[in-house]
# Entry
Amino acid sequence: MKINESILYPIGVVAKMFGISVATLRLYENEGLILPQKSKGQHRSYTDKDIQRIACIRDMINEKGLNLAGIRMVFSTLPCWKIKNCSEEERQNCPAYQDSQDPCWISKNADSVCGTEDCSICPVYSEFADCRNIKHILKKYWNPSSIQDPLKV
Ligand code: SF4
# Structure
């Protein structure tokens, strides 16, 4: 699939690209798997990163047999607190660090350090659109000298 970096794709085009319905794309959004851009009129458009993420979601469903809750759990493993370099105090107030089994962009609350940030442009969401690379991400942030909490140190 060839994707042009500078284009925003309307929802109908993206649905056609994947041979799925517009309702399915809205379901992915409602389940917190994708964060499309929304115009003032609530028209959704998708970046190349969103399309890469949708391809990955489709692969997890069709090839790996995951359901949407399972995919949310996969995304919840992204160590956002390491990527964003959150302090110990910030981690203690953040459900994404504590125990959430949802992606940080769903589980964050107003007290989270990034509570008011636009998650669709955050590197945790946008830079890791290819979920097949999650193991590489975990390796990058994993310190093997910490056995009790490998993502903490
Ligand atoms: S800004 Fe959003 S996507 Fe980024 S780490 Fe915070 S909650 Fe996650």
